[in-house]
Amino acid sequence: MSKSLFASLCMLALPVFAAASLWSAQSKDYGSGNADFTLREIERRPNSSVLQLDIRTRGSSVGSSMITACMLMRLAQERGGYRYLVKIDALPSNPKQMLVGFSHVANVKPQTLDAELSDSAMEVDLELFGSDLNKKCRANVN
């Protein structure tokens, strides 16, 4: 096989491998009772992720919020052991998507993580969820 043909085949396969590396989580993997939803990364950026929540069955708002927090904690861990999230719950371009930035330090200017994050983006310290929730989140993932 010629080098140019091999290079062309690699370029065709690259989008498939890139798409396969995007993150997703199912609520059922976190011990969800009634809720059935998926939080999936639809775009990975250097310091942020665009996420979409696909809801099949709604559960309680508190339970679903706890599961979503667990999912975000897991994503932050897998993306590089981040302690802080900076997020907006609805992108102006698509209200069904959220943007989450990742940081190791507090009070970072949101735009340094992603130009789409505004000053009003909410910072979340994942350590504030406490060790009990951290243990529960880790224990519930199969």
What does the secondary structure layout of this molecule look like, with pairings?
Elements: H1 3-20, E1 24-26, E2 36-45, E3 48-57, H2 61-80, E4 84-88, E5 97-103, H3 110-113, E6 122-125, H4 130-140
Helix pairs in contact: 2-4
Count of individual helical segments? 4
Indicate the percent of residues in helices.
25-40%
Give a short account of the largest sheet: 6 strands, antiparallel
Going across the major beta sheet, what is the strand order? 1-2-3-5-4-6
What is the number of independent domains?
Answer: 1
The number of strands is 6
User: In terms of structural class, how would the helical and strand content be classed?
Assistant: alpha+beta
Shape: globular
Q: Report low-confidence residues grouped into runs of 5 or more.
A: 5-19
The whole-angstrom Rg is 17 Å
Termini distance? 43 Å
Average predicted confidence as pLDDT: 83
Portion in beta strands: 25-35%
What is the N-to-C succession of helices and strands?
Answer: HEEEHEEHEH
From the structure above, extract its key features.
4 helices, 27% strand, globular, 142 residues
What does the model show?
Helix 2 (61-80) crosses helix 4 (130-140). Residues 5-19 have low confidence and may be disordered. The chain contains four helices and six strands; from the N terminus they run H-E-E-E-H-E-E-H-E-H. The N and C termini lie far apart (43 Å). The longest helix is centred in the middle third of the chain and has 20 residues, at 61-80. The chain is of the alpha+beta class. A six-stranded antiparallel sheet has the order 1-2-3-5-4-6, covered by helices on one side.
